[in-house]
């Protein structure tokens, strides 16, 4: 097909919304009102079985920029609130970033997670001021970052020091805009109000003027106008293209993109060639088709690639070997445990700072000595490595929850030939990137299982898959 045609095909594929799936599977029953049951089921179902894999990957990348954690929502029907957040990200994954900013801002889950739901204007009598949580994180984590950037993502300096992107006064002034937000409706017997955009309570909303980032919301502006002015000011800030471009590259391609790579992608974000700023489809296409992503040099460059996230590894296994859910409910569950599971679970970040930060460097390592970053190593240690391998061994051999199982028919048919077996697993999981030494080691392990042993074909297949997924050649995506 070619890469560009594959992208075209991916964006045209349909998707079942998380919300609709939860409704269809009766999670609107009152027994689910005060928990998040069903959220993980819907997440894993989409990641594994939905045909539009690119949308899922981009949606996940966006979810690690505009972060919530489903258990951190101070709402009933948390599974539905989480579904709203994911559906916004997935529906807008190939849309415009400015639209995404607005949809997220007016969403109940984000308002709950970052505590601006029912946020009140300042009260001079009591000394209270508006909650600044969303104003700060919207700028720091979602759009601008702490320091001014050049278009290639490098820091702008003044006297050798980075220049702050915004001040505390900008945060305080912007927080005034995010007051008066309320849920649209009071009916708590269903989750329906969470799917609707937030509305304004004018009794608690700030109506005075606010100035930030060189923009001003005039006194007396209605809530929607005030938010529009604020989001436009942020969206048009020069930091947004390089800030978002670098993070999307990090999550999709490589942890340490060159400034030139960031600059090329940021230029497309700033203008898609038709005068449109914030075109995420054009941005994603630029990321994936760039020479730094596709070129053969990345296969050997020591600074290229990224550590695969644990949830991506599990999804790789499930997609590569046609995993299905016998009951249709995908009961994989919360995989956050660092001792018995993956140490990461999509949509369950403990804070708005995500599972790992984009600038994280593992201390006292060759990566640190080379002044590189490796974000995913922030959730990687001796304990999580062992837990991951143990979890995958059980999943590969026994399935998950007596329900989710892969199909190894194509592998067992060639299992007597260790070279053919390992080559096929190598192709499916790493695009033939296992080193010759790794292939030899895995073949030796497979051949240690006699072809005449009980269940030999399956056990040889299990061994080939597990050792591939434990190999550094696989764990580092290139």
What does this structure look like?
- By secondary structure, the protein is mainly alpha-helical.
- Helix content is 47%, strand content 5%.
- It is built from 23 helices and ten strands.
- It has helices spanning 3-11, 18-24, 39-49, 53-63, 78-91, 97-105, 108-113, 133-143, 168-177, 192-195, 223-235, 240-252, 259-270, 280-289, 291-294, 310-320, 366-369, 382-398, 409-412, 418-430, 436-447, 456-470, 472-475, and strands spanning 157-158, 161-162, 181-182, 199-200, 210-212, 215-217, 306-307, 324-325, 404-405, 476-477.
- The strands form five sheets. Strands 1-2 form a two-stranded antiparallel sheet.
- β5 and β6 form a beta hairpin.
- The longest helix has 17 residues, at 382-398.
- The model has no long low-confidence stretch (mean pLDDT 97).
Properties at a glance:
mainly alpha; 10 strands
Helix amount: 40-55%
**What is the oligomer described by this structure?**
single chain
Write down the overall geometry. Answer: globular
Classify the beta-strand content into a percent band.
Answer: under 5%
State the total count of DSSP E strands: 10
Distance between the termini: 21 Å
Mean pLDDT across residues: 97
Coarse structural class: mainly alpha
Largest pleated sheet = 2 strands, antiparallel
In the sheet with the most strands, the strands line up as: 1-2
Given as residue ranges, the uncertain stretches (5+ residues, pLDDT < 50) are none
Radius of gyration, rounded?
24 Å
Give the number of helices.
23
